[in-house]
Each structure stands twice: as structure tokens, then as C-alpha cells.
Amino acid sequence: MERIWGGRRLESVFGKKLPAQKAIGESWEIVDRSEAQSIVRNGPMRGKTLHELWTQNRHEIFGDVADTPRFPLLLKLLDAHQKLSLQVHPPREVASRFGGEPKTEFWYIAATDPGADLYLGFRESITRDQLEKALRHGTAADYVQKIRVQPGDAAFLPAGRLHAVGAGTLLIEVQQNSDTTYRVFDWNRVDDKGKPRELHIDQALECVDFDDVRPRLLHPEGELLLRDDLFEIQKWNLDSPREIAVRGRFAIVCCLTGSLCCADVELAPGEFFLVPAQLEDRQLHPRTKGTTLLRITIPKL
Predict the structure, then answer these.
(1) Are 268 and 29 in contact (CB under 8 A)?
(2) How far lies 117's CA from each of 2, 114, 153, 155, 168, in Å?
(3) Is 230 left (phi over 0), alpha (psi -120 to 50) or beta?
């Protein structure tokens, strides 16, 4: 996905083949949307879309998960060569009012330039009137908390959290299957036609959690980075073969470092695969020392 703030790091770090002379900000890796689909690469279901698997092979591939119109997660790689806009995503009740989709997300920091930051929540308490005035005057960034980050850091972004990715950050994003973003400040940038991007101040004011003051990065509990109703994310150091999940549960693997294989599928850094619930060979095998991965699952309700 070409983005005004993107770069070329998805190619240099993760080996993605990018179109020449383009600023690429996102790679949608596991996706079931009307405008983009993951496709089965090989095997008996080769060529099927993720949406077809979700609607036609639900139990076999995904096990006992809650019913939704589409696969409920969207997994991406993001290359923020420049700062992303200051933005907020809507909770369910606000999204339905504005015709959007709710969006809660998780970030894992894969690589950074020195001095890279995330913008998360407010530095201090603020009223709706104060924020609206700052948004109208283009000074909202003065009120947002800035946190220095390094590779291995992780953040949770519940819907309603004002946020932005700072320049020089490469990250893995796990989110609800949504593409609804309300942009409130874009650092006074203009596109190649000299026009600023659209802002969504009125919608954003309805979404923002004004009690979200000085939130922190996630503190891992052993392998567990985050457990939420929407997704659970663990980080594994894979130094010996290990079963990804019990039979009957699907899981998504993202290779961070080193390399690994499962059922004759090889995975390099920045690559993802979805392990079907009924797959018999469920062992992940490290191919090199120092292999690490993210394990993404959907908790049972």
C-alpha cells in the first residue's frame, strides 16, 4: 500500500518486492476485505481466498471461533519513514453511528531508527473543549504523550486512544478487520498536488477517550504480550520444535528473526502463515539459532 509517509524498509529489512520509485507504507499480510484478499499459496486449497475459507471451510480451518461476516483480524507490516498522522479509531458504538468499523489494534516494534517515538494518549488531563480548540488550531500534538521506543517494544491501542507512529519505525500490526481512521492532525503535510489530506475532527471528538492519560507500553508476562477479547499475542523464542496450538485451534505465525518451518512451509522474517485448526503436522521447527516469532490467536469466548 502506497502511503505519503512510507519508505522502502519493507524491502530492505523484510525482503518484500516493492514497486519501483514508490513510498510503500503498509503490506497487508493476512486480510479478508472487499478491496484486498489473502490467497492460499499451495496445497489442496491453493487459489482460495481467505474469505472463501472463512465462509466455506470455517470449522476445518478456524475451529470453534465466533461467527462474523468476515475473518475478524487484519495483520499488517508498517514502514513509517515519516510520521503518521495523529489519529483515532472508533469504538463499536461510535463506528456504527458514522457508518465505519470499530478498530482496536496492537503494535510490535520490529526495527527503529535512533530516537524513534510513538505518540500514545495524552500527556495530561484535557477537556473536550481544550482538545477541540487545539485541533482547530493545529496544536493537538502539544498535548499528546511521546514515548521513545526500540525493537521488541509493544503497545496496545484500544479504540478511542489518540495515537501516531513516529518516523523511523518498522512495526507489525494486529488489528480488528477495519479500515476506519479519523485523522486529526497531519503535521501540515501536503500531497504531490500541494493539497493537505482530509481531517475528521468532528468524528474524532466523538471517539476520543479523554481519560486516556499517560498510557504505557506493554509489559510482557513471560511469553504473553497481550490477551484481549479480540486477540491474544505471544512472543516465542523458538530454540526447539514446538506445537503451535492444540488440534482444533488455528493460529497465525509471524517470523521475527531467524527462520522456521511448519508442514514443509518455510518462513523468513516478516512472513506470516495461518496454521489450520485441523492440520495434523502442527510442529514449528527452528531453522537457525535466534529464531523468534509472534503467535496470534483468537481467544475462545
Answers:
(1) no
(2) 22, 9, 11, 12, 8
(3) alpha
- Per-residue pLDDT tens for 238-285? 999 999 999 999 999 999 999 999 999 999 999 999 999 999 999 999
User: If you average pLDDT over every residue of the chain, what do you get?
Assistant: 96
Work out the number of other CB atoms within 10 angstroms of the CB of residue 93.
Answer: 11
CA nearest 151: which of 118, 186, 104?
118
Q: Give the pLDDT band (50/70/90) at residue 188.
A: confident
Q: What are phi and psi of 248, to 5 degrees?
A: 100, -10
Residue 192 neighbours by CB under 8 Å, 6+ apart: none
Query: Is 180 within 8 Å of 89 (Cβ atoms)?
Result: yes
Cell numbers of 171, please?
512495526
pLDDT the model gives residue 300: 83
User: DSSP alpha helices (H): ranges in the chain?
Assistant: 9-12, 50-56, 58-62, 92-98, 128-137, 201-207
CB of 255 within 8 A of CB of 293? yes
What whole-number distance in Å separates Cα of residue 229 and Cα of residue 112?
A: 29
Give how far Cα 13 sits from Cα of 7, 73, 132, 269, 271, Å. Answer: 11, 24, 39, 8, 11
Helix and strand element counts for the chain (H, E): 6, 23
Residue type, 259: S
Cell numbers given for 98: 458514522
Q: Give pLDDT, residue 138.
A: 87
Neighbours of 39 (CB within 10 A): 11
- Residues identified as active-site: 183
